[in-house]
Design goal:
The protein has 476 residues and is of the alpha/beta class. The protein is 40% helix and 13% strand. The chain has a domain of 245 residues: Amidase signature (AS) domain (Amidase signature (AS) enzymes). The structure holds glutamine.
């Protein structure tokens, strides 16, 4: 079995004929079947993947190579792909078949990639452990007693179990970076608006961003160069031209950076001491290599989680109102009247966490509470934005942990949603402010041998810097 962990090697082998795309797809399909116990894939697109592979093979015969020729990619179950089921891991969308393809997925296909299947996730991308999926929890391939993280748990696990070569996920508050950290792979959340959200099932529209999982930075750069950029179908997608990230990654490789870290984060109570030590060692090593690493005070840390959960639940309550049993997926079959149909459809169709968030979001938007919660949180969002933008006037990057701890045991945090919300303490900042962030594997815990990541943030549209620094850390 070939286990490709970078596009360059794959292209060498496809060029010299030691493997065909069709063989590759067959091997992955077989391997996915052997790992069904991990519950990573909700569906394997066997037929369309093999059809795509044949087309790509025909192109290769003609010596026609594209940037992502033959790349086997999994997509999170909240990305539309025409003619394929897409459920956002919810019962309410069971049986829903996409009528169009999301821009990011289409651009992957146009660049020669092959979509192998859709991966499990938390329902409507709400969660940090993949335990909120209507289709069961994803097990961490590194130790199946532990969670893979969430909400893109299946996506991260699909790489950790070598069941594809790259994955698309979505990141509203950490859903790419946190599972990447738990599964020991690279997880990128680009700048808000860098990748079109057309065809991504909305959770909190002003936070949502498609992100990638890869084994290395070069592949993340190659994929981003393909999927980023303006799109007529998404007005929030930036008009800013897309650079050749791979080229810039090479050009910047010897640059030294001015890096900030927040002492409040390093000293925070919940942070696992081993992660803290690993970060401090990293800071020292970076200094030795000529980078500057300085503390910058960030007293707003405690406002991140409340701001995130007020604003995202508000947006979710509005976005999820479209699941009414009339237009999509599940409809309660025995209703006496319209009102009962709505009520029963939504009560049965949505899971507990999704209902909790719709209620919370409706509450913070309701007359009488709007100013106290929603408006207030918007003001804090602006304050956070200004604070971070000011920091980026003087620094190239901010470094912090991706998560307070390594993966936890399945079931360990299910009784208390607040405990789970605190998992997101270090990741939500990038989404609140809209800047890009990446998680790169940093070390392993001596207690459970599970990995943890380090997170890098840069200013908006500075993904090239992000990649360069990430590469330095990954290759240390
Ligand atoms: N864990 C966070 C939440 O539950 C982030 C989710 C996400 O990024 N989609 O909202």
């Amino acid at each position: 079995m070939y286990q490709y962990q970078n596009i360059e090697q794959l292209h060498k082998d496809l060029k010299n004929g030691s493997i065909t795309c069709t063989q590759l797809v067959q091997q992955y399909i077989q391997k996915i079947k052997e790992h069904q116990n991990l519950n990573i894939y909700l569906e394997v697109f066997e037929k369309s993947a093999l059809e795509q592979a044949q087309k790509v093979d025909a192109d290769i015969q003609q010596n026609r190579f594209k940037p992502l020729t033959g790349l086997i990619v999994s997509i999170k179950d909240n990305l539309c792909y025409k003619g394929h089921e897409c459920t956002a891991a919810s019962k309410i969308l069971k049986g829903f078949v996409s009528t169009y393809t999301s821009t990011a997925v289409q651009r992957l296909i146009d660049a020669g990639a092959i979509i192998i299947g859709r991966t499990n996730c938390d329902e409507f991308a709400m969660g940090s452990s993949n335990e909120n999926s209507a289709y069961g929890v994803v097990k961490n391939p590194l130790n199946p007693e532990y969670v893979a993280g969430g909400s893109s748990g299946g996506a991260a696990a699909s790489l950790a179990a070598y069941l594809c070569m790259a994955a698309l996920g979505s990141d509203t508050g950490g859903s790419v970076r946190q599972p990447a950290s738990f599964c020991g792979v690279v997880g990128l959340k680009p700048t808000y608006g860098r990748i079109s959200r057309w065809g991504l099932i909305a959770y909190a529209s002003s936070f949502d961003q498609i992100g990638t999982f890869t084994y290395n930075i070069e592949d993340a750069a190659k994929i981003l160069s393909v999927i980023a950029g303006p799109d007529d179908f998404d007005a929030t997608c930036a008009e800013i031209p897309v650079p050749d990230y791979s080229k810039q990654l090479q050009e910047l490789s010897s640059k030294t950076f001015k890096i900030a870290y927040f002492p409040e984060v390093i000293e925070s109570d919940g942070l696992n001491p081993e992660i803290k030590t690993a970060l401090q060692n990293t800071f020292e090593n970076l200094k030795k290599s000529g980078h500057s690493v300085e503390p910058v005070h960030f007293p707003l840390l405690k406002y991140l989680i409340p701001t995130y959960y007020v604003l995202t639940t508000a947006e979710a309550s509005s976005n999820l109102s479209r699941y009414d049993g009339v237009r999509y997926g599940y409809r309660y079959p025995d209703a006496k009247d319209l009102e009962e149909m709505y009520k029963k459809t939504r009560s049965i169709g949505f899971g507990t966490e999704v209902k909790r968030r719709i209620l919370l979001g409706t509450f913070v938007l309701s007359v009488g509470y709007y100013d106290a919660y929603y408006t207030k949180a918007q003001k804090v969002r602006r304050l956070l934005y200004n604070t971070i933008k000011d920091i980026f006037k003087n620094y190239d990057a901010i470094l912090m942990p991706t998560t307070p701890s390594t993966a936890f045991k399945i079931g360990q945090k299910t009784d208390d949603p607040l405990k789970l919300y605190l998992e997101d303490i270090y990741t939500v900042l990038a989404n609140i402010v809209g800047v890009p962030a990446i998680s790169v594997p940093l070390g392993k815990s001596s207690e459970n041998q599970l990995p943890f990541g380090i997170q890098i943030l840069t200013d908006s549209f500075e993904e090239s810097k992000l990649f360069t620094l990430a590469n330095t850390l990954l290759k240390k």
